[in-house]
Amino acid sequence: MEHPENDDHFHALQVNEGTSDKPTVNPYLKDFRRFKKKSYTVEEYVNGILKGDISILSQAVTLVESSKLEHQIIAQEIIEKCLPHSGDSIRIGLTGVPGAGKSTSIDAFGMHLLKDSHVKLAVLAIDPSSELSKGSILGDKTRMERLSVAKNAFIRPSPSAGSLGGVARKTREIIILCEAAGFNRIIIETVGVGQSETAVHSMVDFFLLIQLAGTGDELQGIKRGIMEMADGIIINKADGDNVDKAKLAQAHFKNALHLFPMPESGWEPKVLLYSGYYEYGIKEIWDMVDEYIAFVVKNGYFAHRRNEQSKFWMYETINEQLKSRFYNNKDVQSELKVCEQQVLSSQMSSFAAAKKVLSLYFKE
Length: 364
Prior knowledge:
45% helix; extended; alpha/beta; 14 helices
């Protein structure tokens, strides 16, 4: 477009050409594609983990969590080589209803533990996943402000991916990698949404249950299943005007524990008060954990429980592999679609359809 104003006769006004539209995609993006993360060999992964390299540990954990077959093969080799260097840690499971202050408490607990220079703490925080998108916010780490920047702490939030009790399927294997990297205290935080907590109980040495007082739900907390698994119960937010309510809840829980049979460990669970916000009662909680560990090591239950957990996870792995191979079988996938339509149209019962698909898979 010509601008007559730019003629030499018009000195007072100058109109410049406009700029062209910018591209929607960064033209320099291709240059950044060259800077990919380095891929390591199995030996490099193992050596890095044993040296305590957090970057390599994080990448190894990503491989463990991956659903890709090639990643799983590498991950299993890494785990096998790290296994002889694992087992030397205290594993703590922590559960409670949403809003009980689990993440905030872990931040306080972790800072208390890290006062000892010999302690290295790994926190495996399990986040609930969306049933629709399968995604997670993974926001637990944001509540661990001090711990997330602490020198000897490693925090790994993971999506639950719909697994039992909100515990990621690969948490057990990640524990092995963290122990091989030198972490001698491991805290596993569950989702705590009322699902079975058997999975987390089967991979920890001490199972800690966080409760709240004054919520009008004391009876819910006294339900038998979760109470029988707990090695210790702590009542959070025992501060300010809530102290009396917390003491009343403490009495209720103590009375309820007396109704249960003595645990196999021989340990009588304790009920303690504390405030995660004001950090009141933190030392007493970890004194209880240390007392429990010393008690079960002395009577042999610690080693017995570890052995039972290893056996449990062997069968769990078998079940997981059978399920995975069944649903990934191409013949099964096509037969499932046919049987599903027959069930929906009432041409076949659900049980007959299931038997037909299983017979195809096992070639009966």
